[in-house]
Amino acid sequence: VCLCRHGPIGLGLAVTMNSPLQSLAEAYREGGVKALESEAARCMPPAGAHGWVDELIAGCSDPTLSVPATWLLLQHARKGSAIPALSVERLVLGGLDAGPNDARLHIAQLIQHIEVPKRCAKKLAEFLIQGCDSDHAFLRAWAMDGLYRLGLQHASFRELADEALERAASDPKASVKARARRLHAEDQRRS
Where do runs of H (alpha helix) occur along 82-117? Predict the structure, then answer.
């Protein structure tokens, strides 16, 4: 357990009013990602601290906490820290429907860093398919990327991923086309 000025981190799955995640969300609202990074560096426990990932996942289902919670979860994974299968299941089964496009974007970007248990892969695929149809171009691009990566982990989603890649190649937004080209190139290297 890591202590910061807001109390202990990682003692439970529910996010309470005195939760450090509340403080991190406030920092994000007041100063954006830079303020969130600064507060997280000061307050987050060292990598591997018990419970912190689950506290972030609990925050993902709260629309007022979802953007900073998903961003912190993504940063955790980008640093090479594992997210246990049970935690991934909690995220997919409880944290996908809430939140603005930025939170959905962070979850889509997270897919490349996690192993998705078969038990929750269908629900995650449904979430990503919705993202592929979003008005938000970056969400479309990364949802397609997530669906592609889900197809690599679970062959039953490969056809959906291929269809999403094909649609993305003719998307009007350059960011979606660029992500599709990268995935096509990656696919060629795998062959």
Answer: 85-94, 101-110
* Whether the Cβ atoms of residue 93 and residue 123 lie closer than 8 Å to each other: yes
Q: What is the pLDDT along the chain (191 residues), one digit of tens a residue?
A: 333 333 333 333 444 444 778 888 888 889 988 888 888 887 776 655 556 888 889 888 888 889 999 999 998 899 888 899 999 999 998 867 757 899 999 999 999 999 999 999 999 999 999 999 999 999 999 999 999 999 999 999 999 999 999 999 999 999 999 999 999 999 899 88
